[in-house]
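User: Could you write out the 3D structure of this protein bound to magnesium ion? I've included everything you need below.
Assistant: Certainly. Input first, then the structure.
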Amino acid sequence: MTAMTSQETSALSVSRLVKTFDVSAPWLNRVVERKPRQFLQAVSDISFDVPLGGCLSLVGESGCGKSTVARLVTGLYRPNGGEMRFAPGHDGKPLSAQMIFQDPYASLNPRWRVKNIVAEPIRELKLRKTRAEIDDRVVELLKTVGLSASDGEKFPHEFSGGQRQRISIARALAGEPEFLVCDEPTSALDVSVQAQVLNLMRRLQDQFGLTYLFISHDMSVVRHMSDRIAVMYLGRIVEEGKTEALFARPRHPYTQLLLQTIPNIEKPHRDRVVAGGEVPSPLKPPSGCPFHPRCPIATARCSAELPEVRTLANGTRVACHLAEDA
Amino acid sequence: MAEAQQAVLEVRGLKVEFPGRRGVATALSDVSLSIRPGEILGVVGESGAGKSMTGLAIQGLLERPGHIAEGEIWLTDRRIDNLGDREMEKIRGREIGAIFQDPLTSLNPLFTVGAQLTETIRQHLGMGKAEAKARAISLLKDVGIPSPEERFNQYPHQFSGGMRQRVVIALALAASPKLIIADEPTTALDVSIQAQITSLLRKLCKEKGTAVMLVTHDMGVIAETADRVAVLYAGRLIEIGPVDQVLRAPKHPYTRGLMASIPALGARVERLNQIDGSMPRLDAIPSGCAFNPRCKEAGPRCTRERPGLLPAGAGASACWLNAGGTA
Ligand SMILES: Nc1ncnc2c1ncn2[C@@H]1O[C@H](COP(=O)(O)OP(=O)(O)OP(=O)(O)O)[C@@H](O)[C@H]1O
Ligand SMILES: Nc1ncnc2c1ncn2[C@@H]1O[C@H](COP(=O)(O)OP(=O)(O)OP(=O)(O)O)[C@@H](O)[C@H]1O
Ligand code: SF4
Ligand code: SF4
Ligand SMILES: [Mg+2]
Ligand SMILES: [Mg+2]
């Protein structure tokens, strides 16, 4: 399988990445209850490229492996297989990715004042020399995310959920990263602050050529931010392509389902049922195409044979036996 | 509002204060709302508006030195804002189920998900071990966790973010409470699971008469789930009314701005709409209408007098322009 075929340079090329977790019961329980060891493949044979200065978004159902990919890319997990290559950054060394975590609470030290939390990467990386310069920078960052200078004196618990999420964004920006992995960075933000933060992220991209790997379940946010989108299902990428191509004509049946179920304020359907049946478990992945139990057009071949990833004429990659190229 | 049925939750004139080094911050001021059996009240508003604070105050969980300075909170026919810690603890979990904004605070990393669920079920419903386990597994299934039997034995860190969020929902539902306070229960969830959770909440309301206070910034979820919507701004209730009116024909200038800043699913725009300026800090709330520095329609009266909630359409709104008034 070859990754994206475009001519753009990639900030990151990932090929055939695999991550497996051992989720066996403790040894004693296994012996007593005669249970075998159990493994969970959270990421299976994933390849993608993140365009330099661009944004690739990962989308897909809860539990499909998005955060695991983010943690692999930032080096928090070690892969069981596959390769990741980072392009050189401004200083000639390979880029390294900074992360904005899905859970803003768990990632902020409760005993530190917010100004110290934000200043830490600046000190660590020696990005400013004097104390006054560091202080100025911290205030600037707090204002950028819609907080005020005096908020720096407070502790994380004195903030609301969305305010804490903004603190973690300010901290991530403090390190002046060239590559930012954002795991649901705006999920706790109301629309107006979300708009501010997304506008800011786009501006940083234009000004400093920042590269993003972006994770969000909100398709309108994803559409706004990304150049390319990779749709994941049960640990695999099932479709990957240019944002507009994917929205204009989703090729994979799962992508089609995903785009259909976007809640709509104009036409809310209040008694909506979950489309397409049960979500499968990565502990017992279906045979063949992982989507076949829910796929409206599945054939006998689908339950027997895992579809290869094919690259269509418009550059979209899709893993489905029946996806057409026309 | 004249209703035959007694409200499950009734909040009257709630004021919450946080004394601090630089004076007293008023986190909530004159908030009144009620939720009837089987009703879902959506609560929306900008980050820091006081949504979580309202939920915490109702449950007696304000972090000290924060406290209720004024007002009353009633759970059916019982006043609960003046109860002691012991009594409140009995009410939490049993009569009020809570889904906190941060799913990790409700989960203990040292115990399996199954152990935590069965513990809550046994404590509140007095079930035996086997019965509690069966209920726990069926709850996990209800919130859309695949392979619930296997997941029962796993620890929180072995779950994805959205799966943890759903475990917290299962915990809140465990004892069949009459009031559920759900603070951003679906933030980290994709739309199809979100739909499953919201339809589960609606089902509980319809079948068991559960009352739900649903805090969320996702207007799509509000549109599909809530019966009525309350809008908070700088710790004040500025608009409340039926969901159709608040979303489609909002009466308050702030609510109108909020609705306009929702990113449309249409084409990519260069810049998303945002309401200019930001919400005031709690210790610097402007006099008169708290929204006046950002309001395009503000007049001289708005900086002098604070507008109270006045009837507006089928709901109420706190703005001087209401009912043909002038600002
Ligand atoms: N540390 C871990 N140990 C065991 N299993 C794990 C671990 N981390 C993740 N998993 C499992 O891997 C799968 C993918 O999880 P991941 O957190 O990547 O999902 P996600 O796509 O980010 O979902 P969400 O949208 O809910 O955050 C899940 O089935 C999860 O239970
Ligand atoms: N322990 C505390 N001490 C002092 N101020 C606090 C404390 N907790 C919250 N606040 C302040 O009270 C205000 C309301 O907070 P709350 O958590 O209710 O906001 P929210 O509406 O839930 O916002 P979000 O959407 O960001 O979660 C915020 O300005 C916050 O900074
Ligand atoms: S391979 Fe078959 S089951 Fe899988 S998505 Fe395509 S048609 Fe559906
Ligand atoms: S009272 Fe005045 S400032 Fe406040 S929302 Fe109405 S017009 Fe605007
Ligand atoms: Mg995740
Ligand atoms: Mg909150």
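Chain B has a mean pLDDT of 89.
User: Perfect, thank you.
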